[in-house]
C-alpha cells in the first residue's frame, strides 16, 4: 500500500459541510425571527394593558366613593 500525505477536503466533503451549515443557519434565522415577533407582540400587549389601566383609573377618579 502506498502512504499518501494528501491533506485537505474533497469536493463532496465541502458540499456536505456547506449543506449542513445552511440548515443550521436557516434554523437559527427562523428561531430568531420567531423570537423577535413574539417579543414585539408581548410588548404591544403590555402597552395596551397599561393604557387600559390608565383609562380605567381616569374614568374612576371622578366617581364618588361607594359606602
Provide a descriptive summary of the structure in words.
- By secondary structure, the protein is mostly helical.
- The protein starts with 10 loop residues before the first helix and ends in a 6-residue tail after the last helix.
- The chain has one helix spanning 11-61.
- The chain is rod-shaped, with a radius of gyration of 30 Å.
What fraction of the residues are assigned to beta strands by DSSP?
A: under 5%
As a whole number of angstroms, the C-alpha radius of gyration is 30 Å
Q: What is the H/E string?
A: H
Outline the biggest β-sheet: none
Proportion of helical residues? over 70%
Distance between the termini: 102 Å
Brief overview:
This protein is 76% helix and 0% strand. It has 1 helix and no strands. The longest helix is centred in the middle third of the chain and has 51 residues, at 11-61.
Helix and strand topology:
Blueprint: H1 11-61
Descriptive tags:
1 helix, mainly alpha, 67 residues, 76% helix, 0% strand
Amino acid at each position: 500500500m502506498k502512504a499518501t500525505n494528501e491533506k485537505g477536503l474533497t469536493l463532496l466533503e465541502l458540499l456536505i459541510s456547506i449543506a449542513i451549515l445552511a440548515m443550521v443557519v436557516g434554523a437559527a434565522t427562523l428561531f430568531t425571527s420567531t423570537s423577535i415577533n413574539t417579543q414585539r407582540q408581548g410588548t404591544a400587549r403590555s402597552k395596551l394593558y397599561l393604557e387600559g389601566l390608565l383609562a380605567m383609573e381616569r374614568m374612576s377618579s371622578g366617581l364618588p366613593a361607594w359606602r
